[in-house]
Amino acid sequence: MTNLTVYGFGLLENNLWLLALVLCSLSLSVISMSPLNVEDSKDRSTTDFILTRARRILLLIAVLVIALPFLIQGSICAGLASVTASCSDVSTYTSAKIKGAILPTLSAFILGKLLVFLYNRYVLTYVSHITRSLRFKIADERLSDIRDVAGKIVPKDFIPSKHYALDARKIFLGLSQANKPIYIKEDSLKEMHAEVIGPTGTGKGIVVGVILDQIIAMNKRPGKGNVVIAIMPKQDLYLPHIMKQQAEASGCRFMFFDMAPGKQGQWSPFSGGNQRERRSRVMSVLGMGETGNLDDFYKLGEKSLIDNLLRSDDFSVTKLRESLEVATKKTDGAKRSIDTLKEIELIDTFTCKKDRGLKLERILTQDTPTVLYVNSSLNDNVILKMTKAFLMEITQLAISLKAAGKRTTHLTLFCDELRFLVSDEFDKALATLAMYDTNVISAYQSPQDLEKVGDSNLNGPAIAHSIHKNNQLKIIYRVGEFKEAEWAAGQTGQQYKTVASRETTEVDKYGAETWGESRMMEQKQEWYYTENLFQSLPKRVGVFIQPGERAQVIYTAFVPTTQSTDFYAATPEAEKKPSPQPQKAPDSKPAQPKMEHTTEQKGKDRQEEAASGAPDWEFPD
Known about the structure:
Blueprint (H helix, E strand, L loop, with lengths): L1 H5 L3 H4 L2 H16 L14 H32 L9 H47 L12 H4 L20 E6 L5 E5 H6 L2 E4 L6 H14 L8 E7 L6 H11 L3 E6 L16 H11 L9 H15 L7 H11 L7 H11 L14 H6 L4 E6 L5 H23 L6 E6 L8 H7 L7 E7 L15 H11 L2 E4 L5 H9 L3 E14 L5 E15 L3 H4 L6 E5 L6 E4 L16 H4 L24 H11 L11
Parallel strand pairs: 3-8, 3-9, 4-6, 4-7, 5-6, 7-8
Antiparallel strand pairs: 1-2, 9-12, 10-11, 12-13
Helix pairs in contact: 3-4, 3-5, 4-5, 8-9, 10-15, 12-13, 15-16
């Protein structure tokens, strides 16, 4: 068939004809062979016009390619071409070529259909998603989604002291999301109360440590001193070291007072302040507050009796109990109060005489600022009750001494686990303390904690609302329940977002879904920081809220300490076995008191030892 190659079968012999046929089959399979006409209408697109013309051209080419072998064969057999081969030979050759082209052409057509299916079924959805994301949109805001928030915020490690700006009269709190320091004006902090909210382990004590560290450090400057008192109902292994370290560096007096028996310090709960202030504490400790029921009537006689005893100069717990026993020797009118006082006497911390032990009035009025750390106990109801009385005395003296012009220092009072310390007296004091050069920092675990105060005589929701209102500065860490997260989000304010409320999709015959070309926009309200964020915050990350400013995420970090004092260890005397009272030798130091409290007598022994001349209100650091 060499002559055939030379005389007209070149296209067939070198497979260009087959290649053209396969390409036409594949192309027509992909773009479809219909429609061949598109009627003129407004809906006709340029793509439709191009595809129609392409189909016509491809069909024409396909017809010509398929007809080419037959045209060549016909011309040869008709004698129009001069060749030496017979017509039968030419027919046999062309038939073989056409049969060999059937399978590749059919395969190309099937392949085209398969490509069309895969594109429409899978690729088109991704293309639609990409083109949708590349739209130039009027608005592209979204409502909060926990999937976009959870795990996205990571704590930051830094040294807080590197960002202190005390010379600029600013208090450093932490870093922003942009790694810029977040400050509050010193005067603003001192003029407003603050609350730090979050479960145990989220970082409340960390930011409080940063704040108190700077307030104590203010005493390095000349001028008004700053007294700091921290009341901790549970042991803290971090904060007392910070306070002691900075107190020593700033020339302040550091005192550690542990209310637990056998530990450091004593305090006479009914001796400080004027008569009315002492009376308030006595009535609170003995449960003489008005409840609005019949019990108030039966308390009148007991109250009158206590009021007569208040005129005494010696108003220790023991003296009050003894006086009540004498006054009611023939009756049991004060049995409940006497039993309560006996229970208090079992703890030697509260059995010192009037002129001995911790002197809050001296702490608040002396020239050298004092830093006082008070350790209480959540597991001892008596100690917890006396902690409330201690807090009451602080607030009473802070107001009365400032009003009388006897106090020139500023007082910062920190109360941890406020839920267990809150009282009606504290709530009332919180509303006025800022006017008397005192700011309070409160910490508790949940926004609803204050509604669950242990005193059934208190209106929990009203107390909680009042305290939240008076605490204008807030740092809120992660919360657990949605109700708590909703409250926290509500403190950050609302914002409006323009979001797509409705967006259409289309499903083609291949089962693929694509985005439609229209969407409906709507403005919706959302909290500035949402519930999702508050439920996703990691440790040491919170939200800082202050009046007149936009809320912002705040990153907090530990204040490094080098202290190794074991504040909570029992004093050496408490570790000794009980022994008889040693006799005081001439010109010798007074014997140290036994710190155990298993009997009432041991509390009296400690009173007598304290009265022997030991320096009052000075305890081991």
